[in-house]
Amino acid sequence: MTKNVIQALTMPTFEKFDSIEVNSHNQIHNCMCVRTNTSEVTKEECRYSMNTIDFTSFDPLFFLHHGQVDRILALYQHIREVLGQQDWTKESFLQDYKNEEHYNFTKRPDISGSFDWPMSPFCNASMNPSYVTLNKGSWTIRNSYYYQELFGYKYDSFDLGGKSWLPLLEDIKKIYRSENYGHERPFVSGVAPELGVIYNTTHSFSDGCTTKYKPAKFKV
């Protein structure tokens, strides 16, 4: 899972970061319901766990988990700012998605305005008591992009598993200088050399549970 996070943090665009990081996100959900005996996990056994979309947010671990996902995103943004590679304007953030065929707004009229759709339950006054997120100026993906400014919080530390994130800067500089940049190229991260080889492009790690148990599948 740590390999997956490091891989995501070295991606050159936010869209690629997003597509890789989701694997480690899914693993946590998957691992919340595993078999307890020799039989396979049944749908009923996982009904009220973080493994099911209907009940996942009822588990306090959900908020701890997504707080960490948010922190990893903040680290990705911070790294790009330190390296001077991204200005993080709204349009630069959206452009990666607009260029991807899967999200191509010219070919997908069903999602052409999705960045400006009101997000539920934030736009529902009966469900959202917050005057900040209930505001029309912040309840869309486009307008809530600067969420840290909206909510007034910053992270004190970006350490990864007790290890400094700073070696990631050198990892990325080496990757960008490589003549193989843009192609699958293995590297060993200075953050955690003991993890061995990591791939820096589109190679994806398993999005299942990495424990010895076989989990039920969680899809998002």
UniProtKB/TrEMBL annotation:
Domain Tyrosinase copper-binding intervals: 59-70
GO biological process per UniProt: melanin biosynthetic process
Compartmental location: Melanosome membrane
InterPro entries hit by this protein: Di-copper_centre_dom_sf, Tyrosinase_Cu-bd
UniProt xrefs under Gene3D superfamilies: Di-copper center containing domain from catechol oxidase
Membrane topology: Single-pass type I membrane protein
Identification of the protein by name: Tyrosinase copper-binding domain-containing protein
Domain of life: Eukaryota
Cellular component annotations (GO), alphabetically ordered: cytoplasmic vesicle
Pfam families reported in the protein's UniProt record: Tyrosinase
Keyword set, alphabetical order: Melanin biosynthesis
One of the record's GO molecular function terms: oxidoreductase activity
Similarity comment text for this entry: Belongs to the tyrosinase family.
